[in-house]
Amino acid sequence: MRRVLLFVIPLTLAGSIAAAAPAGNAYGGGATHDMWQVGLSGNCNNPSVCGNELGGFWGWAEFDRAGTQTWGDAQLTGCGHLASGGGRHSAGASHSSIEIESWTIESGSAGPQTFFVSGEETDFFPGGGRNTFDFTHEDTGIPATPGHYSTVDLLGFSAPGVTFQVQVAYRAAK
């Protein structure tokens, strides 16, 4: 019985503290604007498909809209595999931080409607390298329709050692 009480009392205390704590908000704040959240994953370990660009990337993006104003951001991490002929920054981990200053939804590369973005990207490379550049009206290839998309959906084919996954979620303003 003593062992049961030693387990139940802390569990009861933790539950009452959690019940008294205010509810947290997920990233993106309140529900005063439309928001799309996107999870991305891509891997290619097939040189016949990706050449020297072997490796993968993983990331997250958010597209926000209030009326006609649009903005967002994205964080992507990659890992390049060393392949013969690979150039500078072709192996090791990298990170991209993207500040989306504006975006539109238009017919694009990955289906009828994709996000086209303008903003600033900062890339961080192994060994401390860094590159920042602006871009205008770039097709992300990310579908704007909520759902789960696989390699076949995004690229129109499948191959051994190649996989791409995109998950798009949408929350409308209240």
Question: How would you characterize the overall build of this protein?
Answer:
The N terminus is likely disordered. β5 and β6 form a beta hairpin. The chain has one domain. The chain has three helices and eight strands. The chain starts with a helix and ends with a strand. The chain is 16% helix and 53% strand. The protein has an eight-stranded antiparallel beta sheet. It has 174 residues and is of the alpha+beta class.
Secondary structure elements and their pairing?
Elements: H1 2-20, E1 34-44, H2 47-50, E2 55-66, E3 69-80, E4 92-108, E5 111-124, E6 130-143, E7 147-149, H3 151-155, E8 162-171
Antiparallel strand pairs: 1-2, 1-8, 2-3, 3-4, 4-5, 5-6, 7-8
